[in-house]
Amino acid sequence: MDKVNEVLGCTVAVRRLSPEKFHHPRDGRKWMITAYLRRSLLLELSTYANKDGSFICKGKNFSPSMENLQRFTARATLYRLLDDLKDLGLLSWVRPNHHERRVYEIPVIDLGSETEDEEEHVPPSETCSA
């Protein structure tokens, strides 16, 4: 695994998922729209995660707050998308008590086994002749 995948392992695993993984059974014929929203939210969450999909480092919770997640998404939509991701098995969370922040987990080990192998990225300077 190269250095980028070591640091961004969770984000890379989420990015490689096919759109069908974000298809919820209750979606209608325009399911790609909501699947895109679910993918975008999971990608946003994965940027806070460790490479193993956890959000705890040295005893500190790095899960984003709901206020932070609501900057670009309406509250009701955000909660619906989070519940959908949980239903699909792409996200889980626990909350020690009602007043504390959620502790998320993205099961990247399971996701990694279903991703396609991509060719290694070659920097443009090596592939293009100037």
Q: Examine the secondary-structure arrangement and name the CATH architecture.
A: Orthogonal Bundle
The description of the largest β-sheet is: 2 strands, antiparallel
Strand residue percentage: 5-15%
CATH topology: Arc Repressor Mutant, subunit A
Mean residue pLDDT = 82
Which range best describes the helical content: under 10%, 10-25%, 25-40%, 40-55%, 55-70% or over 70%?
40-55%
- Give the structural class: mainly alpha
Distance between the termini: 29 Å
What does the radius of gyration come to? 16 Å
Strand order of the largest sheet: 1-2
Shape: globular
| Uncertain runs | 113-119
Q: What's the short story on this structure?
A:
This protein has 130 residues and is mainly alpha-helical. It has helices at residues 3-7, 9-15, 31-46, 66-69, 75-87, 108-113, 124-127, and strands at 56-57, 60-61, 92-94, 103-105.
